[in-house]
Amino acid sequence: MSFTGTLDKCKACDKTVYFVDLLTADGVTYHKACFRCTHCKGTLSIQLQMSNYSSMDGVLYCKPHFEQLFKESARISIKHVTMEGEPYHKSCFKCAHGGCPLTHSSYAALDGVLYCKHHFAQLFMEKGNYTHLMIYNM
């Protein structure tokens, strides 16, 4: 008796998945053993109304780590900071030069890098290099 694999490859390890070891979540194929939280490597399950996983951009997490890592994302729709349409967590919205916390009322960006106005002026405006300047006053 010979076992044949499916044509599907496991998203986690990129190896052929045999039917006996096949698990499909959100339309994506995994080996049962590869269906793990990216953060803690804990085994995840997918049972009717009892799944213990969440995913973001195709990356798997157990529910506790998803909440821990992305809980602030739920609040981002209420009070978010954006730069060129990209959302930032408040804790990640810092000056690239000095690590100063930025506010959504005033910051500057050059080539997609965020700065407080003080450091931006110190680094670029005095030199006259501000052709890509975006200063936000909301």
From TrEMBL:
It comes from the Eukaryota. GO terms for biological process: actin filament bundle assembly. Pfam families: LIM (PF00412). PROSITE patterns: LIM_DOMAIN_1, LIM_DOMAIN_2. Keywords: LIM domain, Metal-binding, Zinc. One of its GO terms (molecular function) is actin filament binding. Residues 8-72 form the LIM zinc-binding domain. This is Zinc finger, LIM-type.
